[in-house]
């Protein structure tokens, strides 16, 4: 495992940033636990935001699936998948995030999106 302290992504600073453990006086266990709890609370909030964003994305994809079904647009749009993957790769490069990680994440998201669209498009339209 790397002994370097991980850096925040996107230039965001956490509550514990800016303190070099080797030059700072030793913190009490209580203080260390309080900081850890603050960081975990921050992470929990970010997770809620991430999960809500994924839910909203999947909801939007379902609406796209309904539109495709109602207008006889083919489900597979390979060029669109490429656009999404390229945007993720550019984000990774710009923000110092692992491109391998983002590619794997988007492969999962795209697989779920395709599954949902396939279910929707396979269902007959209820519109007249």
Could you explain the architecture of this structure?
- There is one protein chain.
- This protein has 128 residues and is mainly α.
- It has helices at 29-70, 78-95, 99-121.
- Helix 1 (29-70) runs parallel beside helix 3 (99-121).
- The termini are far apart.
- Radius of gyration equals 21 Å
Total strands: 0
Structural class: mainly alpha
Shape: elongated
Which percent bin holds the helix content?
55-70%
What's the short story on this structure?
The protein is an all-alpha fold and 128 residues long. The protein has three helices and no strands.
Topology:
Elements: H1 29-70, H2 78-95, H3 99-121
Helix pairs in contact: 1-3, 2-3
Labels describing this entry:
128 residues, mainly alpha, elongated
